Amino acid sequence: MIKTLAKSIRNYKRASIITPITVSIEVILEVLIPFVMADLINYMERTNPMKITTVVIYGAILIGMASISLVMGILSGKYCATASAGFAKNLRQDMFYKIQGFSFANIDKFSTSSLVTRMTTDVTNVQMSYMMIIRIAVRTPLMLVFSLVMSFFVNVYLALIFLVAIPIVGLTLALIGLKVRPIFIKVFKKYDKLNESVQENVRGARVVKAYVREDYEQKKFVAASDDIKDDFTRAEKLLAICSPVMQFSIYIIMILVAVLGGIITVKSLGGIDGTYWFGSMDTGKLMNLISYAFMILQSLMMLAIVLVIISMSVTSGNRIAEVLNEESSLHNPDNAITEVKDGSISFNDVSFSYKDESGKYCLTDIRLHIPSGSTIGILGGTGSSKTTLVQLIPRLYDASKGSVEVGGIDVRKYDLDALRNSVAMVLQKNTLFSGTITENMRWGNPDATLEEIKDACVQAQAAPFIESFPDGYDTYIEQGGTNVSGGQKQRLCIARALLKNPKIIIFDDSTSAVDTKTDAQIRKALSDNIPGTTKIIIAQRVSSVQDADKIIVMQGGGIAEMGSHAELMSKGGIYKEIYDAQINGKEDDVNE
């Protein structure tokens, strides 16, 4: 996990290295300041009269050390912020780029809500942890070690108090950390489900309101939120033990240091010889030891905070590493072909399963050849795998058995970008992005001129309603296209696909929201304007496909019937039943 995440530090290595260096200098100076202070106090006690110049020199040294320590502290904070924020930025970018290369199978594995949580909450947790690691986690052990070493120089016997207390406190914190970590692992999985609930409600807001299910959804959300709250409460109760443990340790150590140190100092100042069991001490050393005691205990307190942050971030880091280490199930081959010759398509004994290990195929033994430039219609009931079939063409999934060829070449031999640039898909539930109509159209062709955009919109029968808008092609589309109707959205998506000038264009029930007249006008425009492009039309209406060169009827993941309209009508099979039912208006028969 650490090795994977460390790759994202990249251009912030310099800031990440400077931070612990400046922290180290800051700590060394902070540890030396009490030592110099003690020397000054002893000089003031023993020397009478004191020399002003000596005191001034001591003062100048202390101010200089404090000033340098301050500057180092400011620099460490600055570089730490730069390194941690930059590291988080790189992590998000790396995850986003990785996700962009995922196949649908990879995305299905993680789920959309989980990926969103990993790119937001998990990255924030890792950012906080990284900030702690390069600054606080460096400062804490250094302060602890240096203070402990310096306390041994002051009084070996009293320093042993710290040496005994530190392992006890450290062990307690470690046990608490081991108890807390499994809770955090569960919590982040529940975060995924909570985000999924939110996304469903935002996307399906109209459905929720139409069915008056607001109360039900609120209760479901509150239950999920309370579940996370309960887990966090349990974790925080365990972590809350840290504070009293630390406070108890502080009081015990301070009492022992103050009492024993005071006794030694009094006896030493009273003239008792150095044979006293605890050695001798003076006022300066006593103050010195108390200062180091505070530093040691402060370090332990910071250690507790670091433990909490790292306990949370380890889980988040593993979740991020899972995404970064995930290999796409689709790869560009060596010496990939970068040009698609034509729009011919062949399915050679193709079977497909979303989960190969399950052994359950949703497509079985598909044998099909589609000549370049032809028009193919596909009919079939819900669950007959019509969409799955066409998703194999641009290699959104790979066939589990057999092969799919485009332009006479197996799609697995093509460069993915080259293949997908030659295939345009218009889905029933296609997506428009926030921006103007022109900006959305240029998803199909970034270099398209306004005239080319207008021509594509004319073919898609989108020009009339676009020109009716006050801002025309500069009309702003809200996220998801919520300010246009379903039919308008579909026509805009068809125009966007046409701008790709593809060799193959696939319409996956993409005119379901337009009337039959507009549907017929779109099909005529496509036939007249892109005769050399292979057109595949998935539809529920027979009228949308009856003029196709070949019509495929799918059932149960296989091809039940195939032929022209006339051929299928003469067979008197499923296609004729659908046709008769739709023509006669018998929708119940169609559903059967």
Blueprint of the fold:
Layout: H1 2-6, H2 13-46, H3 52-100, H4 104-110, H5 112-154, H6 156-203, H7 205-210, H8 214-240, H9 242-269, H10 283-325, E1 345-352, E2 363-370, E3 375-380, H11 386-391, E4 401-406, E5 409-410, H12 416-421, E6 423-427, E7 435-436, H13 437-441, H14 450-459, H15 463-468, E8 476-477, H16 486-498, E9 504-508, H17 516-529, E10 534-538, E11 550-555, E12 558-563, H18 565-571, H19 574-583, H20 587-591
Parallel strand pairs: 3-10, 3-11, 6-9, 9-10
Antiparallel strand pairs: 1-2, 1-4, 4-5, 7-8, 11-12
| Percent of residues in beta strands | 5-15%
Distance from first to last alpha carbon: 53 Å
- Helical residues, percent: 55-70%
- Identify the overall geometry: elongated
Could you report the average pLDDT, rounded to the nearest whole number?
83
Give Rg in angstroms.
Answer: 36 Å
Q: Name the structural class.
A: alpha/beta
Point out poorly predicted stretches.
272-277, 586-592
Widest β-sheet, arrangement of strands: 6-9-10-3-11-12
Most strands sheet: 6 strands, mixed
By DSSP, the count of extended strands is 12
Q: Number of helical runs?
A: 20
Write up this protein.
With 592 residues, this protein is α/β, with parallel strands linked by helices. The chain is built from 20 helices and 12 strands. The strands form 3 sheets. Strands 6-9-10-3-11-12 form a 6-stranded mixed beta sheet. The chain has a 4-stranded antiparallel beta sheet with strand order 2-1-4-5, with no helix packed on it. It has a two-stranded antiparallel ribbon with strand order 7-8. A hairpin with a 2-residue loop joins strand 4 and strand 5. Helix 5 packs antiparallel against helix 10 and helix 14 packs across helix 16. The chain is elongated. Residues 272-277 and 586-592 have low confidence and may be disordered.
